[in-house]
Amino acid sequence: MELDPKTPQYLTSDPKSFASVSAHERWPVIVTGAIDDLHRTVGDVTDEEKRAEGKSIIENLAKLKYELQHNRQLTPLPDDGEPDIAEYNKELEQRGNPTWHNVAWLFSECYLYRRIATLFRLSKHWKSYDVFSRQKMSTFKSSRPAVLELAGKYKQLAQEAESSKGTDGKSPEQVEEAEKLLFSEMCEICLWGNATDLSLLTSLTYEDIQKLQGAEARKSSQKNIIVNDMDAAFDVLREARKTKKNQERRVDIVLDNAGFELFVDLILAGYLLSAGLATTVVLHPKTIPWFVSDVIPKDFSDLLNALYDPQAFYTAPDDTGKTYEPLSDREVEEVKFLFSQWSHFHAEGKLVLRPHRFWTTPGSYWRLPTTAPELFEDLKQSELVLFKGDLNYRKLTSDADWDPTTPFTTAIGPLGPKSGMRTLAFRTCKADVVVGLPAGMDEKLRQTEKGGGDSGARKWAWSGKWAVVSFCDGKV
Ligand code: F6P
Ligand code: MG
């Protein structure tokens, strides 16, 4: 905590903050979802010991739900053998053993998912069970229209990216301009893939998700990117390609959600590799199930398995017996093209998965250089570290109540100028914190429909409708 900024963090006790909505309304629904999932799985278990253990986890989840709904104190986490438990418990004590409805939002939300993880880690038969996996895969299945649309586009774009390495009869300025545009398009695909995380599914339908994911939605959302540093990010990658021609040039992606968002992250990664803007892309998943939809390593293999046989995956009847139209031969071929490119990059060591426990610790990324120095050193080797999603943005800025005109480079503290690390954040806004806005912009957005008006709440920033792309060159 001593490493975090002095600016106060958002609290679950503040009725004007999305923290309060999350703690009162959304978390109980999320825990109920976990209980339902486990219930279904336990129902099919024949091994008596495993079944009994599963039931006991269900009871503990119900207890957790009771505690949070009745505003009980957060209790110390049981030791499940992992080193971060001590850090959680120390911070819990430093925060004065708070109750669920009067605690820093960021800390308590991390605690919630870490506590759920202990229930499984401490079991004999359920250690690696991911209580959110079913939900992640079924949402990916419902992303079929957007996946097929992008798969169709990808082949053409990957080829364009490769051909723009040459001059093609165009002037160098035209080549550069075309490449910049393509880069922006890839980034936009990757950015808006974040609009659909599952912890928000408590308020979105699958139809809403499909609408959010298509090309038309992206076009009409361009104007909703209220801070856009994509060009600056492109410039550093292009410059590195020029000056470090035959050397390794790494781009890192600190992942957010599985399923469709991971799919678009891989689209961006594949494009960067094809265009020579990176020679290696390192992906950073979580090590435990996190914020419902975040990527753990198994989600990566689940995604590749689904794409290996898209016909089987997309046409398997669901639990209700609903059946699906078969994919056309062309659609199957296009998805398989993606699969083969990505597996190829993976096999060649150009697409690497590097999990680290730091990502599921309770604190802000202001703590990174001190609490995970080896990870920080590693990230400094990268040309660019892309942080995906809302939670990563909250952690970069410590989820603090900054004045919205505070520069991003200030709000990320020790990761800012001269840190040695280049930071790029792609975030659709789903929480209160926001920085780097021009003066007057927050006020203007509050006056838009459902923007919060004069209520004192920054509601425009809660729904994923608006986005920020913020960059800080920490190498200068
Ligand atoms: O909408 C709120 C929320 O659940 C936040 O608690 C969290 O920051 C975010 O959504 C998760 O979103 P993302 O998957 O984009 O990090
Ligand atoms: Mg997430």
TrEMBL record:
Pfam families: ARMT1-like_dom (PF01937). One of its GO terms (molecular function) is protein serine/threonine phosphatase activity. Keywords: Coiled coil, Hydrolase, Manganese, Metal-binding. Its EC number is 3.1.3.-. Residues 23-445 form the Damage-control phosphatase ARMT1-like metal-binding domain. It catalyses: beta-D-fructose 1-phosphate + H2O = D-fructose + phosphate; beta-D-fructose 6-phosphate = dihydroxyacetone + D-glyceraldehyde 3-phosphate. Residues 230-257 form a coiled coil. Its cofactor is Mn(2+); Ni(2+). It comes from the Eukaryota. InterPro entries: ARMT-1-like_metal-bd_sf, ARMT1, ARMT1-like_metal-bd. Metal-dependent phosphatase that shows phosphatase activity against several substrates, including fructose-1-phosphate and fructose-6-phosphate. Its preference for fructose-1-phosphate, a strong glycating agent that causes DNA damage rather than a canonical yeast metabolite, suggests a damage-control function in hexose phosphate metabolism. Subfamily III proteins have a conserved RTxK motif about 40-50 residues from the C-terminus; the threonine may be replaced by serine or cysteine. Belongs to the damage-control phosphatase family. Sugar phosphate phosphatase III subfamily. This is Sugar phosphate phosphatase. It comes from Paecilomyces lecythidis. The gene is PPT1_1.
